[in-house]
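Hi Prof. W.,

I finally got the Acyl-CoA synthetase short-chain family member 3, mitochondrial prediction working! I wasn't sure whether to trim anything, so I left the full sequence exactly as given:
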Amino acid sequence: ALVYAMRHVYGSNPGEAFFASSDFGWAVGHSLTCYGALMNRNETVVYEGKPVGTPDPGAFFRVLSEYNVKVFFTSPTALMILRKEDNDAKYRRKYDLSHVRGLFLAGERCVPEIHRWWIDYITNNNPTATSAACSNSHDIARAPEFSFAYMDGSPTNPVVNVSTDHWWQTESGSPLTAICLGDITTGADIPPIRFGSAGMALPGVDLRILRTHSDDGDEDDTSPKSTDHALEEAAPGEIGSVVIKLPLPPGCFSGLWKNDKKFFTEYFERFPGYYATGDAGFVDADGYVFILSRDDDVINVAAHRLSTSTVEETATRHPTVAECCVVPRPHNIKGQVPVVFAVLKSGSYTPSQLADAKSQIAAAVRSNIGAIVSLLPENIFFVEKLPKTRSGKILRKLLRNMFTAIADHTADTNRGSSRLSTTVIPLDLPATMEDFAVAYDIWKQLLDTPHVYSKL
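And this is what came out:
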């Protein structure tokens, strides 16, 4: 499965250099940098460091140039960091990347605005100039695309600097969806990149979207999930639970270490006959797969199920925002409402500018998605950094649980309890967190904001 992925998905030929920026503690690190690359007889780059600060935002590009890397694999988080620190491509332009065939993204969903920026940043071809942003999943008939086939005006240009998102899981062992570069010889053969999509299902992956019922529970709920509903496949463009019909393709996991019961209940009990990926998404009429978020990142606002990714897409388009994430917070009338945590691009901002930015983001969400989202400016927080794992994944569950902890404590406060301490987070912090100080800074910011207590 890994050799197939190296050759057919990534288009990495024996003898060529392959560079994945993940460390060996994560699936990409050992599966691709070590096993996949070496079994495919590739040169492989072992890299320790970040996209910035080691020593500057040109670190990745120096490696790509120095080692003549043909295929590069990184996370959307790295792109967001570069967008913040090198938005004008000053460091990027120091290096010739014309030899790089493919630039693959995975680990988190790459929102369209970030992917468009990345293509412009790498190739100096601005895809925004030729495609309008898609405001929500139901606008799929006019989903924004970018074709690498005519990037230099010729339908027979070579395969160079193709940037595409794709999707897989630790459990799958290798990619599940992608735009494959391995069997492509000219740019004219490359399917259009559809922004927000992770490509199409690969051979052997019988991917389906099943409708989700409101009483199915979420991943934080340890009670048994309902299996009384008949399994219904979603229509093209309809958001549901992403599943894979059994049998699973080669290379997938076959159990959990000494825990057969959890292997069944976690992955196969909820949807009999299917592997539950734990992700929410949809497939469009042309077969492009859109992985939007984890199942438990879907917000239920006044009985309306909304994907956090649609709010993130709109917020990220604001000119001051480098990256953001959206989580739900409890609301005593609507059940949940969204909260935006955003990191600003480098620069200085006055309080008035920050207040205007919050109002503009809230207005854009209302205009693009609808008033039902119920995003208020006061539920937008500008932070220095987002809490992430060492592999770059945003710890959304931690942020969500902070609000739950505040809501639970607020209920106790009505009975005379003391206020929460800004120096003690009453949660188990993930051991995989890269910087614990980030979590404490956000926790203090939340507790120092009066309406966080008063409007739960």
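The first helix runs from residue 2 to 9. Does that look reasonable to you?

Thanks,
D.
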